[in-house]
Design brief:
Elements (H helix, E strand, L loop, with lengths): L5 H18 L6 H8 L3 H13 L4 E3 L5 E3 L9 H9 L2 H4 L17 H17 L2 H9 L22
Antiparallel strand pairs: 1-2
Helix pairs in contact: 1-2, 1-3, 1-4, 1-7, 2-3
Length: 159
């Protein structure tokens, strides 16, 4: 279970995949992206449409078309990707999903969740698509399990 909605998870993965391909001056098709990030193609199409409308990714139709990012897109904060897909709810919403929750009428998790939410928001605002892309290219972080050596996939229960 992740912090983000499944839609947002696919969107973030797609943006990172497109960013990697864009470093090689390649446009990628929905099919290529869907296969690489293990997403249903039709579902991904709607996500990519939202990201394109928000100006986060570029879309070109026809032969030689596909999706890419230009160099300016690499400076997009991850918070903008999340907002384009899921709106503001992650940044302002209640941890329990209660509509009435506020400073004046807090839910049981309000104060603790507010701190976590604010830290997450700050991290997403400070981190850009390009920073994640650079770390992916350098192998500092992974997007797929296929790059993990078989004996490293086991987790130590004492961690």
């Amino acid at each position: 279970m992740g912090i983000f909605s499944k839609t947002c998870e696919y969107g973030l993965r797609a943006v990172f995949f497109i960013a990697q391909s864009s470093q090689e001056n390649k446009r990628v098709s929905i099919k290529e992206i869907a296969e690489s990030i293990h997403s249903p193609e039709a579902f991904l199409g709607k996500i990519l449409q939202n990201l394109s409308r928000a100006g986060i990714i570029r879309s070109m139709k026809g032969p030689g078309g596909g999706f890419n990012l230009d160099s300016g897109d690499m400076s997009t904060p991850l918070s903008e990707v999340v907002k384009a897909i899921d709106g503001e709810s992650l940044f302002v919403g209640c941890g329990m999903g209660l509509e009435f929750c506020s400073e004046q009428y807090p839910c049981p998790l309000h104060h603790e969740f507010k701190s976590i939410r604010n830290n997450l928001s700050e991290m997403l605002q400070k981190t850009t698509v390009g920073q994640f892309n650079d770390d992916l290219i350098k192998g500092k972080i992974l997007l797929t399990k296929s790059h993990i050596e078989p004996d490293k996939t086991r987790t130590n229960s004492s961690d």
